[in-house]
Amino acid sequence: MKKLKRSARLVEMTQYLLFRPHVLIPLTTFADQYNSAKSSISEDLAIIKEVFEDEGLGELQTLAGAAGGVRFTPKMTKAASLRLVEGLCAQLQQTERVLPGGFLYMTDLLGQPSIIQDLGKTFATAFADEDVDVVMTVETKGIPLAYATASFMNLPVVLVRRDAKVTEGSAVSINYVSGSNKRIQTMSLAKRALKEESRVLIIDDFMRVGGTVRGMIDLLQEFNATVKGIGVFVESTEAEERLVDNYVSLARMTAVDPKTKQVGVFPGNYFDEKEG
C-alpha cells in the first residue's frame, strides 16, 4: 500500500490498464493499491478514459454495481491503421521483394516489433465485437502476427503445425488442398491445444486462394469449434475463386508482371467502408 501524487498514480494506473486488456478490474484494486478513496480513483479513471478516447488508444468501460469495475479495450482508429498500411504497401511494392511463384518477401516487416504490434492492434480492433476464446494460426510466418493480435485481445494462441510434434502428445491431423499449387498437404493440432466448442479467430500473413485457411477451418470441425473471424495481412487479387469467405484483409496484392516484376499493393477490404 502506497500513497502517490495524482500524476504518478495516473501513470501507474494507465500502465496497469494497458497491460491487462479486456480484464474487469474492480475499483477496490486501485483504491487498496494507492490507499485512496474510490471517489478519487473514479476521477483518475475519468481522466484516463478521456485521454484514451481522444488519442484513439481504446475504450475504458465502467461497469457499475458490486461486481463492477473498469475494463480497457485497446482500439486503433481506422485512419491510423490506414496510414500504417499505406506505408507498408509502398514498401511491399519494391521490385526486389518479388519472389519466384509471385510471392512477396515480407519477413523483415513482420519482424519489426512496432509494425507487428500495430498490425495486431488493427486486427484486435476489427474483431473487438466478436466473442472469441483463442487466436489460431499456422506455422510459421503468421506466428508473430497472431501473438500480437492475441496480446491486445488477452487471448491464448493456438498453433497449427505442418507435422505433428511428439512433444505435444496426440494430435488431430487432416489433409487439405493447397490453393496455390493444388497439392495435398497435411496440418495437425494437438488435442490438448484446443478445447471442444471453442470460438476461434484465425490470423494469417498471406492468402492467395485460401487453401491453408480452408484447411484450418476443416481442422476446427474436428474439435466442434466455431470460426468467429478470419484476418489476413495480405491477400492476392489474382485468384478467380476463393476457398473462404467473410475475411478481413489489411492489404491487397495484384498479379506480378513477370517481365518487370512490378506488383501493386493496396489497402485491403478492411478499409473499404469508412469509419462510422
UniProtKB/TrEMBL annotation:
Record-linked InterPro entries: PRTase-like, PRTase_dom, Pur/Pyrimidine_PRTase, PuR_N, PurR_Bsub, WH-like_DNA-bd_sf, WH_DNA-bd_sf
Domain Phosphoribosyltransferase as annotated: residue spans: 110-248
Limits of the Bacterial purine repressor N-terminal domain: 5-74
Record's keyword annotation contains Kinase: no
Domain of life: Bacteria
A Pfam family that the UniProt record links to this protein: PuR_N
Xref: CDD domains: PRTases_typeI
Alphabetic keyword roster: DNA-binding, Transcription, Transcription regulation
Family: Belongs to the purine/pyrimidine phosphoribosyltransferase family. PurR subfamily.
Record text on subunit structure and interactions: Homodimer.
PANTHER family on file: HYPOXANTHINE/GUANINE PHOSPHORIBOSYLTRANSFERASE, PUR OPERON REPRESSOR
Annotated protein name in UniProt: Pur operon repressor
Organism whose genome encodes this protein: Paenibacillus chartarius
Gene behind this protein: purR
